[in-house]
Amino acid sequence: YGMGSSTKASFTPFVDTRVYQTSPTDEDEDEDEESSGNALFTSELLRQEQAKLNEARKISVVNVNPTNIRPHSDTPEIRKY
């Protein structure tokens, strides 16, 4: 419960506005904090994963170009020989 309370405390500033708008009751606030907090956490993870995938794609594209350039550097050697 210690870890859960710390994570909930970290999400409360983001969740408070939605919680007060959606549910005025205390019991609903607790449930909404957990559900919306997890939703925000999962959405942030998805955004981070997508960003990593986009960066990985960019890096892969950058790595593909040197491999295509190296054969060009090999062909002049064949031409010289």
Summarize the structure.
This protein is an all-alpha fold and 81 residues long.
Description:
The protein is 94% helix and 0% strand. It has 81 residues and is an all-alpha fold. The protein has one domain (2-80). Helix 1 packs across helix 2 (26-80). The chain is rod-shaped, with a radius of gyration of 25 Å.
Core attributes:
single chain, kinase, mainly alpha, 81 residues, transferase, rod-shaped
| Alpha-beta classification | mainly alpha
How many distinct folded domains? Answer: 1
Percentage of residues in DSSP E strands: under 5%
Tell me, rounded to a whole number, the average pLDDT. 60
Radius of gyration: 25 Å
Order of helices and strands: HH
- Give helix % range: over 70%
**How far apart, in Å, are the first and last alpha carbons?**
73 Å
- What is the global morphology? rod-shaped
User: Helix segment count?
Assistant: 2
Low-confidence stretches: 5-12, 28-32
> What is the tally of beta strands?
0
Main sheet: strands, sense, barrel: none
Protein name: TNIK kinase
InterPro entries: STE20_Ser-Thr_kinase
Keywords: Kinase, Transferase
GO cellular component, one term: cytosol
Could you give the topology of this structure?
Elements lengths: L1 H21 L3 H55 L1
Helix pairs in contact: 1-2
